Amino acid sequence: MSNHYSNRWELDSLFSGGSQSPALILALQTLKSDLEQMLPSPSAALHTIILALQDFDARCYELQALIDCLLSQNVNDEKAIQLQEQIVVIRALYENLSSVLDEYLSKLSESDFKQLLEHPDLQNITFSIQERREWNRELLPLAQEQLIHRLWINGYQGWNDMYEAFMGQFRIPFPDQAGAERLSVGQAENLLSHPDRKVRHTVFKEWEKTWSMHEGSFAQILNHLAGFRLQLYEARGWTSVLKEPLFCNRMQDTTLNSMWKAVERHKQGLVRYLNKRARLFDSSQLAWFDISAPLPQETLPFISFNEAAELIKSQFSKFSPRMGAFATKAFQNKWIEAEDREGKRAGGFCAHFPISQQSRIFMTYNGSMTNIFTLAHELGHAYHNEVVDPLPRFSQHYRMNVAETASTLCETIVIDSLIHQTTNLGLKTVLLDHKIQRAVVFLMNIHARFLFETRFYAERKKGFVLPSMLNSLMQEAQQEAFCNALSEWHPHFWVAKQHFYATSVPFYNFPYTFGYLFSLGIYAHLQQLGPKSCGKYDSLLADTGRMEVEKLAQKHLGVDLTQPDFWEKALELIEEDISKLLQII
């Protein structure tokens, strides 16, 4: 007998009372006061400053995660909006203190720094300390960096907040037989994968029309975000816009270049897939809104949230008993917000609460196969958090590319298990199609985003980039990344995609492709190991916050990511799936 799981998350065990929580308000006030009162000096023992900041980091992250959850479940929660401003101020205080620490670290002599790293209380966070010292040497003098952090709140971050507020307020018209319905951005986005092409086309036209009407405002936001970033880079003496994102992802430019070159060499299989899909749609080429649509005559029953939970638990358990037990805990403890309702923000995410050692997953679930894979994806993030939770906070800071590795691998576990189990040719076709759709996203869609953002920053250095130019850059990037395999494009994708407006991680794109291909390589490696694989995988995840990706791959997989071999082998796995699908459709 299956369990009944709630599709609404529970937050009161973290802080009771939602955005009006007295405990939450007190925690914010206390943290702010503690940060303001801590004035580290060179005479203080550095190891005590490091440990204090590690504690502050966990507290900041815990509170930020909760406020993000409150705002996401109700974008009109005015109190949560106020709390968001408070946590931004607190984060700036923390960053200023971090800058002071990093300045001290960078000025230590080699012998004094070596002695610091030998302190017994710091043995499990030495990588983080070394990384901070190295990065600080790339920055401006302390006073200037602190000024940047203060200006960040109402400048850089302010533009991002404006974008989020706009997107929460927009409604997309959807004329149907019952009249004109107005959909939230998240609801409209879900309909872009509707089985009825007329519905997809109607929503897409209104989607593009809505963004076109407001493109001037969004161009202002995007230009100012990029302008702030470029001026900051110039002040620091950086010439490449990729310097920060590469550091943020602990990877070398040779690794990034090797990956993209391999991707470009392996796109023809995806083009064949798209062309075959177009013929199934009785068309010479697919349109943008057809890419994620189900196949014609694809008949899949509505899959309830409860059924999705049981399916994921079962498949996770077959791969790893620990992972299966974790998924059960997440569903039983109401860690997942999945209800389809008005007022929620678009998209999905996993929030980590390092002090409580819990996670929360946010999405809008409507019963599609894609929703199941999204749920598995976010549970992969949550499992990653579970593995690193016993570590010191500074050793938990894994970067986006390896975060996407863990989540994407969990998607693959669910898809592959279903493909291997089913004897139904129709279902096998659907599952293989979904699997290759993911490849299209990571190897074509994400590539288009990377190309667009690279070229946008080149144009922004010359001056303000007008909406018409942004549309052109976006469409040209899509045409190149998709090898001109589509008949209709999405020129306003730069408006609709929140990732272009993120302030925490610049170039919120290539880490997805890295994570996808890295996860395929890991998955193949673990399958070769057999029963021993579970512990090996957990060991790899545990190291993601304390080494560069090249060293991580060498240690746990014995491969060199700067060379094409690893990427080529991962891409060959995708080509095998494409061949299997094309043989049966």
From TrEMBL:
Recite the UniProt cofactor note for this protein: Binds 1 zinc ion.
Signal peptide feature range: none
- The Peptidase M3A/M3B catalytic domain extends over 191-572
One GO MF term, please?
A: metalloendopeptidase activity
Q: Which InterPro entries match?
A: M3B_PepF_2, OligopepF_N_dom, Pept_M3A_M3B_dom, Pept_M3B_clade3, Peptidase_M32_Taq
Give cofactor(s), names only: Zn(2+)
The coiled-coil regions, if any, are: none
Q: Name one GO biological process term.
A: proteolysis
Q: Where is the Oligopeptidase F N-terminal domain?
A: 106-170
Mind telling me which SUPFAM superfamilies this protein's record contains? Metalloproteases ('zincins'), catalytic domain
Q: Which UniProt keywords apply?
A: Hydrolase, Metal-binding, Metalloprotease, Protease, Zinc
What sections of the protein cross the membrane? none
Family statement = Belongs to the peptidase M3 family.
Q: What is the name of this protein? A: Oligoendopeptidase F
Which species is the source of this protein? Candidatus Protochlamydia naegleriophila
